[in-house]
Each structure stands twice: as C-alpha cells, then as structure tokens.
Amino acid sequence: MKFIIFLSMLFAISTSHSIVLSESKFQEIGGDINNIPNSIRLNNEILREMSLHPEYLAVGTINSSYAVCTATLLGQDNNGFSYIFTAAHCINYNKEKSESDINATFISWNREIIAKGRGKAFVPKQLIRKPLLHKNDRVYYDMAILKLPTVDVLLDQFGFPVPFPILNDKHLRVNTEVSFVGHGSWGVGNDISDDYSPAFGHQRRLYGENIITRIMSQHAFLIWLVENNNNKWALPTKGDSGSAWWYKHKGLDVIVAITSKGDNSLVVGASLSKKITWIKSIYNDVKLLSRTFLTIKEDSNAGEVGDYYQVKKQDGCNNYYELSQITNDSYQNLPNSNNDNSNWQFRGPFFEHNKQDLVMGDIFLYDNPESGELELFKLISPNIKNITKNIPTDRRDNNSWIYMKKADIDYNQLINCSTYKDTVYKEPTSEESLTALYEIQEIYNSLTFLSELQDIYNSLFTSEQ
What we know:
The chain is an alpha+beta fold.
C-alpha cells in the first residue's frame, strides 16, 4: 500500500529528467566518491563511449523553444520527412487535439542536424481526453511522434546509414535487463549537476543499465537505483526525458519504453507494446519486433520453434526459413535450396509466377505498382484464387496479409537470385527428360496409328464408290 501511495505522488508531481550512477558503480569505473566534480569528467568517459555503440546511434536530442529532451529517430520516408520519438511532456502540444503544429530540430549523436523546421507533433488521444480515463494516463501515454522535414541522412562513424530501431510489440516480463542513453545532466547518487561535463568530446551523453522491477499492466515499467548491484546501477534523470529503454532479444536491440517521470531513486518508463497501433497510424514503416527476421549470426542460438530467419545465400539474396525443430545441429542444418528439412521450413520468398505454391505463413515478394518498390508480405490466411490481388499497396495489413518490410534488393538484383530463377524455370533431370521422350513417342505412335486408320477408311470409301 505504501508503494502505491508513493507511486501516486510520483505521478502527480515529478517529471523525469541524465544518467545518474550509483556510488558503487561510479567507484567501480574508477571514480572518486570524495571528489565527484573532478573525477566524473574523466571516469564517465567509458560510459560515454558505450553510448556511441552502433545500436544507440539513432538516439539524439529534440530541440525546441519549449524544451530540450532526448529522442530517437524512428525512420525517414520518401516524401522528405523524419519521424522522431520522444516524451509528450517534452513538447508544447495542443491539449485539445492529438495533432499539433511544431517547430523543432533533431540533432544526432555527432551534433549533425538530421531534421529541422515546421512539422507536426502527434500524441495519443488518451492525453487529450477530458477527464482522463485513468489517473495515470499522463504517464502511461507520455509519448509523442514528431514529423519534421528531413535535412540529412543519419550516418555512423564510418559513413554508413544508421539502421532504424526496432520497437517492442510483445509483452515484457519482470526482471528484464534494459539499457538507455541520455543527453541530460550527470550525477552520482544525490549529487547531480548541470556543471558536470565530459573532459573529451562535446556532448554530455551517457550510457546506463537497470532492470525492470515492476510492470503496470504492460502500460508502464519501473526501475530504481540499488547500491552494489551489477544490473541496477543507473537511472535517467534531468534532460533524459524521452530517452528510449532498450533490451536484447535474440541478438536484436529493441526499444521497450521511453523515459517519462521519476526522481533520483525511481523512474517510470511508458511502455510501447500497447501503443503500437497508434504508432503505426503515424508512421506505418516503423520496424516492429514481431515483423523482424532473426539471423543465425546474431541470435546466439536463442531461437525458438516458430521463429523466422533471414538467411543470405551465396548469390547475395535472402531466403526465409521457419525454425520447426531444435536439435544440437539446427543451425548447421540450414537447407541449401528452397526446400524443407527436419529443422527448417522454407518460407520464401515466393513470387507472382509461383504464387500457387503459397501456404499460410509464407513470405511473398510484392512488386508494388504504386511505390515502385519490392516489399515483403506474410500470408496469414489460406491461399485462394488471386490472393495476391488483395495485397495492400499502402503497406498496411489486412485479413490476408501482414506487411513485413521493404525488400533488401531491387529488381535488377532479383532476376539473378537463384530462388527466383529456379522457380521461373527448372532444368529437367535425365529421368524427367527420358520420361518426356517416352510420352512424346507414345503420342507419335498414336497419331501414326490414327493416320493409318484414316487412310484405310478413305480407301474403303473410295472403292465403294
């Protein structure tokens, strides 16, 4: 009961704001607890470097006249817009509407402007409902998506495009380990200051870890700081509102929540799994965990029966397989062709010319006539006549198809893929050729016999006359 009362007070008065470390963690990385102002500048460097690992490069800041908060780039469309995810309390949205005009800038991990200018800010309808349906809705739905004009492509340290993040659309369990990256103030224990800054680099950016200790109906997660604990040693604080919480799922880095409210000992994150429909209504191309293929290289043998894998073949094209049985040699027993075996079921891609072979659960490569792009859809209904005519051209879902993602190849590459070529035309085996010759010979013999009968009939008919 005491916890519930404390939580209600927290929701009512606190807005979570950088990364604060436990005293024990700070000492572990070489910090001097008796000289935090000087040692934090150098000793936090290891955590600042961790914040620049590839999986966190989509994290940056959203700057407006209203506030500066941590945010994450969800993706960029072909119409010149970028989609940025942050906390709703970080923006000055219209409390009467779920869509507002905004003028803001998204700045990347290396201080490059990625998106800037006048755009739109979207918040869940639960935040504008009066009165609130639930007293905690301002925390449960404390999230916003900003649609801003794209200025540049987000690149990593080597000049390659940064992959867009994957969002969690599945239920999470208590004791899930999470990590986060923030751009706010630095601190140790209760000693937090805007004056603490790195000795190297320009951005006050930091990495932290914790464990989800309580889950509130999959709407919000709680984490808190614990001394001398190897997993619960950091919290987002001032300036980290809107920062993403990440967890590892079979080798994938997945966002499960964003920082909402808290204090120096406890923080609440707004969960994503129950808000996916709203998120997709704003940005349909967002990457979701349930629609992401695993890879043998990344999953560390953590796959389960029913998981789908993307396997790059020697020709550079991808095949898709469903794990159907786990044995000691499952991962060494991948088929080399478009066939099934004891561990794997071939799931595609299938094409228009062999769509008759589709079964429920297969992956179809769709040549979208409107977008001009190749897209992957998963069949979720029985295969009926002209089933591919029912594929949505707007990359949404329907009763027959689930949109998975854009294909990783274009048409010029596709025609050289073995999976494509083998299903267009297959060279007959020697046995098939011999059988075909016998069939042709039988047809010829039959035709010859009929011709001879016709000659006999004609001769008889002529003699009677």
